[in-house]
Amino acid sequence: MRVKKILPFFYTIFSFFIITNCKKVQVTQKPNVLLICVDDLRPELKSFGAKYISSPNIDALAEKGVKFQRHFVNSPSCGPSRYTLLTGQYGPAGNNALFRRANKINEGNQEIDKSMPEWFKAHGYTTISVGKVSHHPGGRGGKNWNDSTKIEMPNAWDKHLMPVAEWEHPRGAMHGLANGQIRVKSGNMDVFETVEGDDNIYPDGAITNESINQLKTLTNNNENPFFLAVGIIKPHLPFGTPKKYYDRYDGVALPEIKNPQKPKGKTTWHESGEFMKYKRWGKNPNTDADFANDVRRHYAACVSFADAQVGKILATLKKTGADKNTIVVLWGDHGWHLGEHAIWGKHSLFEESLHAPLIIHYPEMKHKGANANAIVETVDIFPTLCDLAGIEIPEHSYGVSLKKILEAPNTTGHDAIAYNNKASTIRTSTHRLTLHKDGFVELYAHTSKEKETKNIAEEQKELVKELKKKLNARLDKN
After folding, report:
1. How far apart are CA 279 and CA 299, in angstroms?
2. 5: Cβ–Cβ under 8 A, 6 or more apart, which residues?
3. Can you give the pTM of this predicted structure?
4. Residues 325 and 317 sit within 8 Å (Cβ to Cβ)
5. 358-361 and 66-72 beta bridge pairing
6. Of 135, 160, 236, 270, catalytic
7. In what helix (H) or strand (E) does residue 359 lie, and over which residues does it extend?
């Protein structure tokens, strides 16, 4: 009789132990990371104040996360900007920045700090990239960017994937138009197009499908947390989309182009070479207003197309149930001029090239849908993800964790710096200073109505001196 009385008590205690232990495992499980990189994405989304843009999926993410309204990239070009994202450090200004780092690793003469995916891998994560995460989609070099002996980020990814479908190779997909069109000579390729068909007639359709496949696999095998990075190509040039996205802008009034004149005096203005080399049918958007609006509508259509891919990926994440334990970051690798300062493209050090969207969501965050107006920069993403995941923040990161801002969106940020091959710049809450390599200085007051159209460097010599000192101190980290 005594044994019969003891057994139920024993089973109760044992069950309580098992349940408690299971709950502990769930609580202590490291969160997954889903990083979505979108190429050439201006912060011109409905969630960032652009009422005419159709971006419902990114906006839905923004309502669940925190929108960093003043996030600035560290370089206005794909390669060096992604270098800063993936290493947490400032680096070379060229598109070969990550390959230069890879060469140093392969030479083996010096210790190279771990990249973000390598750091997460060292902390038990499965790391996978799909699409354009580093500069080359798929992360390989060679003539067609598919040479597996030339890895852009050694030791970083368990898998680095680039589905090419009918575009033959990653280089073909990078600038591909509908149904397998590959850029051979830019002048023979239309700068924009719309084609009837579903999302799979463009390379991003294949990237999205593979991302969904990887998500399903990762969530079915949940022994390790995952770090999945997805790189969507559009709205990168050329501006091609399925017609249904262009139709969203039929009859929609476009906002006026701000400051469309070419700047006077010395600046980082350029002749929009990347854009102008495409087939434009003899038209120039700086002198042809109708053509300018055509370009802007096609860019907007590409944003909506990219937004649809984001929606499919996030819907899959939710369907798997992994969304409950996944940090989601949406990041634009830099901005893009649509006629401001008479530029069509990136590469300048004006606001339009450097200002890009950043949205961060993590499970159980308190300030869903909040706007953060703190100035932050791309190098902050690496330490932030470490902080949110509960892993050590590397000492070699130049950035700072944004967790405090996520927890209290009114928290102040810090100055942001950026650079190209000819100059460097620092953005404060009130001013932008740009320092050319020959010593020439631009200074703009963002508190004035002129903003970045009036150089006040000669009028504010003490401020110039102060900001040059700050800028050089930050650049000395390199």
Report:
1. 16
2. none
3. 0.94
4. no
5. antiparallel
6. 135
7. strand 358-361
Evaluate the CA torsion angle 147, 149, 150, 154 in order and state its sign: positive
Q: Could you tell me the two tokens for 53?
A: 């843009």
Q: Which of 78, 270, 337, 431 is catalytic?
A: 78
Is 135 an active-site residue? Answer: yes
> What is the tens place of the pLDDT at every residue in 199-245?
999 999 999 999 999 999 999 987 899 999 999 999 999 999 999 99
Residue-wise pLDDT tens digits, 371-418: 999 999 999 999 999 999 999 999 999 999 999 999 999 999 999 999
Pairwise CA distance, residues 229 & 211, whole Å? 9
Q: Determine the angle formed by the axes of helices 289-320 and 56-64, rounding to 10 degrees.
A: 50
The CA–CA distances, whole Å, from 377 to 34, 128, 280, 383, 467 equal 19, 24, 35, 12, 17
Q: Is it the case that residue 26 has pLDDT exceeding 70?
A: no
How many angstroms separate the CA atoms of 344 and 73, rounded?
18
Annotation marks residue 78 as catalytic: yes
Please report the pLDDT score of residue 28 as a whole number. 56
φ, ψ at 67 (rounded to 5°): -100, 120
- The token pair that represents 403 in the structure block: 């967790």
Q: DSSP secondary structure string, 86-145?
A: HHSS---SSTTHHHHHHHHHHHTSS--PPPHHHHHHHTT-EEEEEESSSSSTTSEESTTS
CA-CA-CA-CA dihedral for 438, 443, 444, 447, to nearest 10: 160
242 beta partners: 195
Whether the link from the prior residue into 235 is cis, omega within 30° of 0, is yes
And the tokens for 268? Answer: 């980082």
The DSSP code sequence of 181-249 is: B--SSGGGSBSEEEESS-GGGSHHHHHHHHHHHHHHHHHHSTTS-EEEEEEE-TTSSSEEEEHHHHGGG
Cis before 238? omega within 30: yes
∠ CA 85-128-32, nearest 5°, is 80
In the block, residue with structure tokens 């652009």: 50
